[in-house]
Structure formats: C-alpha cells, structure tokens
Specification:
It comes from Eucalyptus globulus (Tasmanian blue gum). By secondary structure, the chain is of the alpha/beta class. It is 27% helix and 22% strand. It has a domain of 148 residues: Rossmann fold. The mean pLDDT is 93.
C-alpha cells in the first residue's frame, strides 16, 4: 500500500541531500501523510518568498496558477476588449483566469454551481457577470443571454453539455483552451458532442494543453504573480479541510462541486 501523492508544501526535518537543509520549506509532490521519505527530490523546490501564505504554493503560486497563466496568456492569446467565458470559474484555476481576463481589459463571465459561488465571482473576483449552470435548463440560451455578441475565448474546465453549447456561441476566430473536463471523468461512456461543425463555420481553434509544457516559464510566472498578490490586484480563495482524515471527503467532493475555491487539506500546522 502506498499513500496518495499530490502537490504539497512541507518542512525539511532531516536531509542527506546537500541541496536541502533542515528547516527549508519546499513545495512539490509529497505524500498524503504527516512525514514523507523523498528519495528523488528532483520535483521539490525551495520556497524563497514566505511573505504570502505557504498554502498558495499548492494553488495560486503552484500548478493551478501556472495552468491558468499559461492557458490564458499562451494558449488563448487574449486581446483587450475580447469576450471571455470561464466554466468552473470559482475553482482553483478558473478564479485566476477570470482575473487575468479583467487585467487584460476583457469582458468576462463565469459559470459555477451555486449561488454562493456566483456571488463570489462577481463580488470578490471581479467578473462582469456569472450564472449558476444548475439553474439553466438551456445552456445555449443562457450563453446567448450573457454573450449576445458571441464568445472570443472559452477556458474549458467542464466539458459535456457546456462545451456543446459554447460551440454554438463562439465568434469567428475564437479560441478554446481545454484545461480539463471534470463533468466527464466518471461517466462511462462520456457525453457526446454534437455541434462540432461550428468549429468549421467559425474557424475556431481548440487546443488542449498540460501545465508540464510550461514549467520553464515558472520564474517568469512568479515575477508576474507576486507583485499582483502583494498589491491586492489578484485575490485567491481556498477551501481548507483540517486534518489528514478529512482528505478523502475533500477529494470526492471535488467531483460534485462541494469546494469553494482551491481545495487544500491541512495535514499539520507544523
């Protein structure tokens, strides 16, 4: 039996590696356990900036943050004034994509699964508008209501019916960055997509990507993000579950939208 692994922040309590000394704070792939023996430290990085919450290195300054940054700026190639739609918009990635879009001077709308999350998108993250997809019986009609002029950029986190409706509403030369499709992971078979010809009609570009393709941009990403965080120009919400025993519930809850913001499991405070 092996523990689950994931992105984590840890303190070095013993080290035989000259690159890491006792007391160093690191982030990278760690086990879901109070103490981990890491024999291959290539995936560990020292945390140099500790004036922000350390948990941020699992989120806004970690994989989700770099995912949002690379997906929006590199894959979507945004321009000022464009119309941007983000699904799962209150999640770890989506909340940042929306804020990046506003920094670019775009009009941005997000979808989420509860009134609380919709309110958060508008009041805290600065989205121009947002809606609860669970309350919409016709997603195509909803998107036409929020984007009467069409969508230039869709940041895809959901898949299925949402993607199918988006295809009907993309503007000519629109771009779709496919980050994930959380509605489909546990479906067998997955939902079919029926509106694919609209990719042809609208000359729409759809590109999937992995954050691993952009690891070499991490220093540039940090230089961009840290000043924005310190100046309050980008904010972040975490959903922190206390104690390792809460981990399984927190993990399963991701698939039904129980979390608000980035889901974090706090294994130990020290």
């Amino acid at each position: 039996m092996q523990p689950i692994t994931g992105s984590g922040v840890a303190k070095i309590v013993d080290s035989g590696n000259p690159e890491f000394k006792v007391g160093d704070i690191v982030y990278g792939t760690t086990g879901w356990e109070e103490y981990s023996l890491i024999t291959n430290p290539q995936g560990l990085f020292k945390i140099q900036h500790t004036d922000v919450p350390l948990s941020y290195y699992t989120g806004i300054l970690g994989m989700p943050g770099l995912t949002a940054y690379a997906g929006f700026y590199e894959v979507c190639s945004p321009k000022k004034g464009e119309y941007v739609f983000v699904s799962a918009a209150s999640g770890a990635v989506g909340q940042l994509v929306g804020q990046f879009a506003k920094l670019m001077g775009c009009y941005v709308v997000g979808s989420a699964g509860s009134k609380e999350k919709v309110d958060l998108l508008k009041s805290k993250f600065g989205f121009d508008d947002a809606f609860n997809y669970k309350e919409e019986c016709d997603l195509n009609a909803a998107l036409k209501r929020y984007f009467p002029q069409g969508i230039d950029i869709y940041f895809e986190n959901v898949g299925g019916k949402t993607l199918d409706a988006v295809l009907l509403n993309m503007r000519v030369r629109g771009r779709i960055a496919v980050c994930g499709m959380i509605s489909q992971y546990n479906l067998d078979p997955p939902d079919g997509i029926t509106n694919l010809m609209h990719i042809v009609y609208g000359r729409v570009r759809i590109e999937g990507f992995s954050v691993s393709d952009y690891v070499d941009q991490y220093s540039k990403f940090l230089d961009f993000m840290l000043p924005h965080i310190r100046e309050g120009k980008i904010v972040y919400v975490e959903d922190i579950a206390e104690g390792l025993e809460s981990g399984p519930f927190a993990l399963v809850g991701l698939f039904s939208g129980c979390n608000v913001g980035k889901q974090v499991v706090l294994v130990a405070r020290e």
